[in-house]
């Protein structure tokens, strides 16, 4: 018996922070994937095998459906697996669970494209098959979001999990209240090309969101006036994509980014920290650049309908040691 499943990485095209306020966000799936393989063993115990380690982690599931690690605790992956078993509320024995996240690393460096979200989604798919629950896609997405949120103490929208699960190139996602959401597959204009740029800075999404939430409370009047402007620009951006109007889309994306800059300056979140040199370089080439996700370093996007200009800046960045990949 072998069960295999995959889920993709993700990058925010737009809608960072406003996704938490019911604004439209567009999420991109990346070429990288997390892979989960479940197979039988000849042992009573289970074992977790990770591409991040050269040894396995044997475990049992007790009568309360809690994992008992028989040796070392694998921490992050162990937490996701533990929450997965809790979510499905069923145990098993004699299984090997191999989780491969090697796509999410460049050398020794982890790329900020949502490995934990991808693992949560891929593991949900695999456990659904193992336990023969035959859940619907919507139910599996909800399971994946719960597993990810609890294992990561996540404060985010959960859109990274949805994008990882569905593996569509572009999704429009929107929250309604705390639990409800909708998503739809959208087609970006064909001429729009996107390259992800991995820089040498790292940031913690939870820390960035905590700063954002604290600043919202501190500057209530400012935020109540500014947030609707940002959400309106996201609506215009979405409409331009539906019209296949790349020029209008780029104008709205630029306007949204300017509003994000203004909010970041007011809130001191640090969204654009470690991105300024890349922003200036992109301007010199006539290419649009923005941080992806919570910002603060790590991942940015080069976006343009002009492939020649994109190729030129990508060549320069590669010569400087940056890791890039097309989305």
Supply database-style keywords.
4-stranded antiparallel β-sheet; Ribosomal Protein S5, domain 2; Alpha-Beta Plaits; 14 strands; 26% strand; 8-stranded mixed β-sheet; 327 residues; single chain; 2 domains; globular; alpha+beta
Secondary structure: elements and pairs:
Blueprint: E1 2-14, E2 25-40, E3 46-50, E4 57-61, E5 67-69, H1 76-88, E6 95-100, E7 105-106, E8 109-110, H2 115-130, H3 137-152, H4 159-166, E9 170-176, E10 180-185, E11 193-198, H5 205-218, H6 220-242, H7 246-267, H8 276-284, E12 288-291, E13 299-304, H9 307-319, E14 323-326
Parallel strand pairs: 3-6
Antiparallel strand pairs: 1-2, 2-6, 2-9, 3-4, 4-5, 7-8, 9-10, 11-13, 11-14, 12-13
Helix pairs in contact: 1-2, 1-3, 2-3, 2-4, 6-7
CATH 2nd-level architecture of the largest domain: 2-Layer Sandwich
> What is the overall silhouette?
globular
Largest sheet: 8 strands, mixed
Tell how many strands the DSSP assignment holds: 14
Helix/strand-derived class? alpha+beta
Order of helices and strands: EEEEEHEEEHHHEEEHHHHEEHE
Low-confidence stretches: none
Count of DSSP H/I helices: 9
Number of domains: 2
CATH class division of the largest domain: Alpha Beta
Question: Beta fraction of the residues?
Answer: 25-35%
Mean pLDDT across the residues is 93
């Amino acid at each position: 018996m072998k069960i295999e499943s995959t889920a993709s990485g993700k990058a925010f095209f737009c809608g960072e922070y406003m996704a938490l306020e019911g604004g439209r966000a567009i999420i991109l799936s990346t070429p990288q994937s997390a892979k989960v393989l479940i197979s039988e063993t000849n042992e009573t115990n289970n074992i977790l095998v990770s591409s991040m380690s050269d040894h396995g982690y044997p475990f049992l599931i007790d009568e309360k459906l809690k994992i008992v690690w028989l040796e070392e605790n694998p921490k992050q992956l162990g937490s996701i697996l533990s929450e997965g078993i809790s979510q499905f509320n069923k145990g098993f024995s004699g299984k090997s669970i191999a989780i491969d996240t090697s796509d999410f690393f460049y050398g020794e460096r982890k790329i900020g494209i949502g490995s934990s979200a991808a693992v949560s989604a891929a593991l949900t798919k695999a456990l659904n098959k193992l336990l023969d629950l035959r859940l619907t896609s919507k139910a599996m997405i909800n399971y994946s979001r719960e597993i990810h949120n609890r294992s990561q103490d996540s404060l985010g929208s959960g859109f990274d999990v949805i994008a990882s699960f569905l593996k569509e190139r572009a999704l429009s996602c929107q929250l309604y209240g705390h639990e409800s959401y909708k998503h739809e597959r959208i087609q970006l204009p064909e001429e729009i090309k996107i390259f992800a740029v991995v820089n040498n800075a790292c940031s913690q999404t939870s820390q960035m969101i905590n700063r954002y939430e604290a600043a919202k409370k501190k500057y209530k009047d400012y935020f109540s006036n500014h947030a609707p402007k940002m959400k309106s620009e996201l609506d215009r951006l979405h409409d331009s994509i539906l019209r296949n109007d790349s020029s209008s889309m780029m104008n709205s994306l630029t306007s949204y980014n300017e509003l994000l800059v203004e909010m970041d300056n007011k809130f001191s979140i640090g969204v654009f920290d470690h991105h300024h040199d890349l922003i200036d370089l992109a301007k010199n080439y006539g290419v649009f650049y923005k941080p992806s996700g919570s910002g603060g370093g790590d991942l940015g996007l080069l976006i343009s309908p002009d492939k020649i200009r994109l190729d030129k800046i990508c060549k320069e960045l590669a010569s400087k040691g940056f890791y890039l990949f097309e989305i």
